[in-house]
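Hi Q.,

Before the meeting this afternoon, I wanted you to have the xanthosine-5'-monophosphate prediction in hand. No need to reply - just skim if you have a minute. The sequence and ligand are here:
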Amino acid sequence: MNLRQVWIVDFGSQYTQLITRKTRELGYSCEIITYEESLECWNKGEKPSAIVLSGGPLSISADDNDYSFYFEEDIPLMGICYGMQIICRELGGKVEKGVSGEYGKANIHFTQGHQVDGCCKDLNVWMSHFDHVSVPPENFDVILESKNNFIAGIKHNTKGILGYQFHPEVDHTEYGKELLEYFYKGLARLNKDWSTKEMLAKASEVVTNVGRTKVLCAFSGGVDSLVAATLAEKSLGDDLHCFFVDNGLLRPQDHHHIKLLQKETNLNIEIINASKDFHDKTAGIEDPEKKRKAIGVTFIETFERKVHEYEEQKGIAFTHLLQGTLYPDVIESTSPHKKGGKSVTIKSHHNVGGLPEKMKLELLEPLRFLFKDEVRALGKELGLNPAWVHRHPFPGPGIGVRVLGELNPGSIKCVQLSDQILFEEMHNFELYDKIWQAFTVFLPVNTVGVKGDGRAYENVMCIRLVNSTDGMTATWCDVPYPFMDKVSSRITNEVSGITRVVYDVTSKPPGTIEWE
Ligand code: XMP
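Predicted structure with the ligand bound:
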């Protein structure tokens, strides 16, 4: 099933994923593709119904790629920011090096005789560019300009070629959807071919293609692995084995959730209790990266042991590993500025990545072309309980990265109790669905306080509440004081060893969501 009507060619813009999401929201199938891939596909004869050239951090004057093939066959094309500068360079316009650039909100207006359905004549948009188009190519009209007469939008007067200097995909841009739809519907005349039904068909195809075979699923109970497993179970039945590892770093609600899933779904879920192994392997480790690595290795060893046990005791040999990998992870590894680039490891995320090679398992990733919100929609379509589908994300290393420094049972317990209080109060104050992720972090510093009539010299618990769409960036949440007051007073009263509660007001960047 080929569902990529539109190629979103990525030149490294921080907004390329957003263009893709917005395009799909409008109902058009699309995929992100690198320039090199687009050239390769083109030479092999694979052509899309429309092309979008993304923004990018480079200066067009330093770019010597040949983009002429995009214009060979009159395929509708939209250039955004850097993409509009590509149009100009290729078709004979003039791009000038900027002196100061234009960043942030800008007010622009349609020029005489031009308009887009549903838009006002004047609109505020999000600009982020240094160079600018000073002369459009021949046969192009300037359709939008900014107050200081910068060219903000151009359109070919007979062909379906459109350029926006600003970012219609960003929420700060007014009428962004209308401006995108003007291209897809008005100029490219595409048919809508993307909906939950198509997503479901495409994801199901991945799992049905493997036929009846033994599949192992590293199951966390989070929305991604739950949706992947629910899909796979439909064709695999009991040949799908979901292993949930209890690493001793879970919260009470995780135990409750997994038991509920065992009871209320058709999934064959086995809970592996490996708390002792994780405790032994992390003992004495203070460094966050070493701790993450130790936890990651222990996960793999646990799975390996289980797989051997199945082979030897039950004669079951697994051939595939099912994972809930999402599109942002796939894009991360192919983005022009990540691939082969000097990207720094901020933290090594836990996954069971070492397992497929070691055990010679083939990967099965039915969600690898979907964004998180699309996976949630798919979960709903599959009839999963909305509370499961909208569950906050929880990291693989769990509380292991929420007790700073060395892990010990006392501190782990403090986080478990504090998190339970935090979650109870979020539900009481009807805040759970308004927050993307919430947790508490144990800070191993002592501070002085009074409890009853006595002096206390105890630890600090930090509350972290963030909003985000994909975890790549995040903002701290503004929540009502009475909620904060209740959580703080309950933690200091009910969790022994904690005298002080603090709130983290750091966004990402510069902070990361987890503290380690
Ligand atoms: P950071 O801390 O990198 O977190 O800003 C971004 C999102 O990823 C989650 N996270 C993880 N998820 N394994 C996971 O499955 C991990 O090792 C891991 N580390 C962080 C984090 O909870 C947040 O949602």
